[in-house]
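Hey, quick one: can you model this chain's 3D structure?
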Amino acid sequence: MNSQRRDWIGRGLGLALGSVAAAAGSALVFPSVRAFADSVDDFIRGPEVPDLPAERLSERVYLIYSKDGFPTPENKGVMCNITFVVTQAGVVILDSGGSVQVGEMALRVIKKVTAKPVVAVFNSHYHGDHWLGNHAFLNAYGPSLPIYSLEENMRTIKGVEGSLWLRLMEQWTNQATLGTKIVPPNRVVIHGQEISFGDTRLRMHFYGTAHTPCDLSIEVVEDGITYVGDVAMQDRIANIDDGSYPGTFKYYEGLRANTRKAKDQIWVPGHGRPGKGLLNDYAELLLGIWETCLKAVEDGKDLSAAKALVLEDPRVKSRAARTAGFDSNIGKYTSLAFLEAEKLAF
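Sure thing. Here's the predicted structure for all 346 residues.
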């Protein structure tokens, strides 16, 4: 998620939280209101979303690629990649999408690839475009379906953030995601843990705050592929309001040091195309912002001067034309880097 979406959150926060509070209050006074609302949700739903093709990345791994990076009425919330792994034990989902409709689309697409059932879902972090599709998989396979995440991510989704994302996705898509319900993760994983699904091992990676404080990356060990969620993106800047520039670089170091066949690893993002050079390319853009701001703080320059220097940094300048939302976002991300650099300096 980038700063444009963060700005949308700011505008929608009061309305979303007000709706949540009002609904909670009504349910306390009139329990039947909550039951009625739940029943209405079963009938009032947004439209189906068109099927996207499944692209094969390796022997076991497939990608349902979404070209959009932001939720709109036109894309109906289809704006996050869904990666799935076909194992001997069944299909494993790496991020389920941004609504019940997106999850149902993924289920239809998976059935075109394999008749095997879905046996597990993993959620990389708490931004709703990555986990609100859990609802579709729960509907299809029941409440005992394992949905894995880091503990802090599970706790965040169960809190206000989960309700906020549900309402914001409805607002941003002009109600196209209506009918989606919050289905949080129900299994906790930790860094370094391996889970086997028949012939396939998935290894969990977490190296501290990067895009958020609880980003989970999942390595498909036998295939040399790692799903990194929003820790890195292709040709866009990931939201880092809840994250850290140096934390992101530290996270990359951890991934490179601890994934099998790291030099040949294919990194799969939540937004954008996979590639072996994804981490290096994205790091260059972030380093152009971060190192320039760090030097500006050391030299006693102000934020305005830092921004001018960032725009002239060749690592940033060379990527400006191909980075989605660059003009509207570069000021925000320079400010965030400058503030983090000031904290380190003082």
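One thing worth noting: The domain at 3-276 is CATH 3.60.15.10 (Metallo-beta-lactamase; Chain A).
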